[in-house]
Design a protein that fits this description.
Elements lengths: L3 E2 L7 E6 L5 H9 L17 E7 L3 E7 L7 H13 L6 E6 L6 H12 L4 E5 L9 H11 L3 E3 L8 H11 L7 E2 L11 E5 L13 H12 L3 E5 L4 H7 L6 E4 L4 H5 L8 E3 H9 L2 H7 L11 E5 L11 H14 L4 E5 L14 E4 L7 H13 L4 E3 H8 L3 H5 L6
Parallel strand pairs: 2-4, 2-5, 5-6, 6-7, 9-10, 9-11, 11-12, 13-14, 13-15, 15-16
Antiparallel strand pairs: 1-8, 3-4
Helix pairs in contact: 11-13
Length: 404
């Protein structure tokens, strides 16, 4: 697939949306083949979005997200609706359920959200055993939105195969695949040197996820990975035969090891590779130089994708802020948000956003994580790209991607 690989993190995410009591949970049960969701005649049984991992015939392993009704009412109902909208940041396909030929403002607003987040969708008219789908409504919706409208009954249907076929055809290929992390940057049989510090942030007895992913990707693409710690680079680079065709380092030791890597050997970092594979790479490239334009009092947003134990050597909470203050010589303020939670301040209050590598989330999640900043015209960068800039080797660290 031209440098494309499958991975656990690329499992398709399908969101089920619709008004209360339109049969969202019942549809999930049909797809799962057994009762996994709460089904009730009372509207509003589903409150917060609930993820369900399952194997769907014709699709394979997938994550179904059962959401609250988009017509919920009251202050609590509005919070439920907003949580349902939040799932648009992570899903690959949306299924909009309608019943009784009812299609109005709630559905129009939801579809506008689908389009805003570029989420492909299908419309299913459920409970067709009670109220058949109006052919005029079907024609109108298919013409207006250029999507399939499918008539279905989660209770009495014998069209399950057609439903599965519809969903399988609607899921974009990008839901299953992602760009290779290292593949395409070296040739078959070539050696790739990985510089992997073992510090306080490294998990006990294990390596950090980007390092493991890089090793696997090199092997998958028939390369030869060679690993060493930063203190061994100088001697190894002189004696390693054949010479490595690519060197990848942890961003935190960029400055220390760069002087030992011959200029004719391509050199980059795990974080920059992740930025290219899963992040908004073009906007990172444009936004990183803005570090030189920061002023006293500017506030920087640090986005961590995962929640982890925080140490005194934490790269996002301590090292990057310290490096940026020292490099710029400015009095900068920093906010850190872990996981995929919302920021406490309006995005417009930030001068710059720094996103982590995103090794534990999907590309879609990373893109949507930084989307508010991009939409607001706020410069964005990535941990590794920011570190490379501040160590004066940014251009070298990204030059191997110029023609890729």
């Amino acid at each position: 697939m031209n440098g494309m690989t499958k991975g656990k993190e690329t499992k398709p995410h399908i969101g089920i949306f619709g008004r209360r009591n339109n049969g969202k949970s019942s549809l999930i049960n049909v797809l799962a083949g057994f009762d996994t969701a709460i089904v009730s005649a009372e509207p509003g049984t589903t409150t917060d979005p609930v993820k369900k991992s399952m194997e769907i015939p014709g699709i394979g392993p997938a994550i179904l997200i059962d959401t609250a009704g988009i017509d919920d009412t009251g202050e609590l109902g509005l919070k439920r609706i907003n949580k349902s909208f939040d799932t648009l940041k992570v899903i690959d396909l949306a299924v909009l359920l309608i019943t009784g030929n009812s299609f109005g403002e709630s559905e129009e607003n939801l579809i506008a959200k689908f389009e805003e987040y570029k989420v492909p969708f299908v419309i299913i008219s459920n409970k067709s055993d009670i109220t058949p789908l109006s052919q005029n409504l079907k024609i109108d919706l298919e013409h207006k939105y250029q999507v399939k409208v499918f008539e279905f009954s989660a209770v009495k249907s014998n069209d399950n195969n057609e439903l599965l076929k519809l969903l399988a055809e609607a899921i974009p290929e990008t839901a299953y695949t992602s760009n290779a992390l290292v593949g395409g940057l070296f040739k078959t049989g070539e050696t790739v040197l990985l510089i992997t510090p073992i510090d306080n942030e490294a998990p006990e007895g294990r390596m950090i996820l980007p390092q493991v992913q890089a090793i696997r990707d090199i092997l998958d693409n028939d390369g030869i990975p060679v690993l060493c710690k930063e203190n061994d680079v100088e001697e190894l680079i002189l004696n390693l035969k054949p010479r490595p065709s690519l060197v990848i380092t942890d961003s935190q030791v960029f400055g220390k090891v760069s002087k030992f890597i011959p200029r004719d050997i391509p050199f980059t970092s795990f974080s920059i590779l992740l930025a290219r594979q899963r992040g908004d790479f073009d906007n990172y490239l444009k936004g990183t130089p803005y570090i030189d334009k920061l002023n006293d009092g500017d506030r920087i947003l640090i986005l961590e994708s995962c929640s982890h134990h925080v140490s005194c050597d934490d790269i996002g909470r301590h090292k990057i802020p310290a490096w940026m203050r020292r490099y710029t010589g400015k009095k900068l303020e920093f906010d850190v948000v872990a996981g995929l939670g919302n920021t406490q301040r309006d995005i417009g209050q930030y001068a710059m956003v720094v996103q982590c590598g995103g090794c534990v989330i999907t590309r879609k999640q990373v893109i949507n994580r930084v989307k508010p900043a991009v939409d607001a015209g706020i410069p964005i960068t990535n941990y590794g790209m920011a570190i490379a800039w501040m160590h004066g080797i940014f251009m070298r660290a990204v030059e191997l991607f110029e023609n890729k």
